[in-house]
Write a structure and sequence with these properties.
about 260 residues; alpha/beta; Rossmann fold; Hypothetical Protein, Haloacid Dehalogenase-like Hydrolase, Chain: A, domain 2; 4-stranded parallel sheet; 4-stranded antiparallel sheet
Length: about 260
């Protein structure tokens, strides 16, 4: 049975030095080629383990240009821009998936421009220091990226709250730490992962696949739920969500107060 691992990148396989100063293995560079993101020994070991005998497919919010600044070797397909682009193994956009995105993106473009202007206005009114831009990938306007210049998650959360009333129906705000993305309804990692799963099964003659989803943020939950198994790092959005669900149960001993207890 073939094994396929769909894995998020930032804050799952690596992170900036600011987030983890102890991580020393270079994993990505910035636009000028300077070191930007690093792997810890545990993250490197995880990737080695996941890659052993498996096809590893990155699933990232990075656009194609930023994905190509990742120095790790995956050697297969990749899903970029929150599912807006599916790259084939040769590094070119999958034409079938690109056709779907090209049909959907123009209808969302006016709302994207409106939200961009509203984000600038709200940030200026609230005195929140962010940089923001529409992410274009494979020739298509896909989503709005917002990053706090001082890395403040609290200030980004305040801006997200201010933007919530401006969001059109079906649009979502993805916030993770000091980064935020405003995503149109047609975009989503889960949509692209399902497409790739179907394509791989067709290539393999509809043989069964064992699929594993690895991610850290709430936007990863959709594609992780499509997989047979799911894995998340501790201290992340998903891990914190699980902790909130399980802590009350973990704190309560079911034998305490039980009529059957001896």
């Amino acid at each position: 049975m073939g094994r396929v691992v769909f894995v998020d990148l930032d804050d799952t396989l690596f992170q900036t030095a600011r987030k983890d100063p102890t991580a020393t293995r270079l994993a990505a560079v910035d636009g000028q080629g300077a070191p930007l993101s690093f792997q810890s020994d545990r993250q490197a070991s995880l990737l080695d383990w996941l890659s052993d005998g498996a096809r590893v497919i990155p699933v990232t919010g990075r656009n194609v240009q930023a994905f190509r600044r990742v120095t790790l070797d995956f050697g297969d397909r990749a899903i970029c821009s929150f599912g807006g682009v599916v790259l084939n193994a040769d590094g070119t956009p999958d034409p079938a998936w690109h056709g779907r995105m090209a049909a959907a993106a123009p209808a969302a473009a006016p709302a994207l421009d409106t939200l961009h202007a509203a984000t600038r206005q709200r940030a200026e009114a609230l005195g929140i220091d962010v940089r923001h831009r529409v992410i274009d990938d494979a020739g298509l306007p896909l989503y709005l990226s917002v990053k706090h210049n001082a890395g403040s998650g609290a200030e980004t959360a305040r801006l997200a709250e201010a933007m919530a009333p401006h969001m059109p129906a079906g649009w979502t705000i993805h916030r993770n730490g000091s980064n935020m993305a405003l995503l149109p309804p047609f975009l989503g990692k889960a949509h692209a992962v399902r497409f790739v799963m179907d394509a791989l099964r067709e290539v393999d003659g509809h043989q069964p696949l064992l699929t594993i989803g690895v991610g850290d943020s709430l936007t990863d939950l959709g594609y992780m739920a499509l997989c047979d198994y799911a894995l998340t790092p501790r201290g992340t959005q998903i891990a914190d969500l699980f902790a909130r669900w399980t802590q009350p149960a973990a704190a309560h001993d079911p034998q305490e107060g039980s009529e059957d207890a001896a």
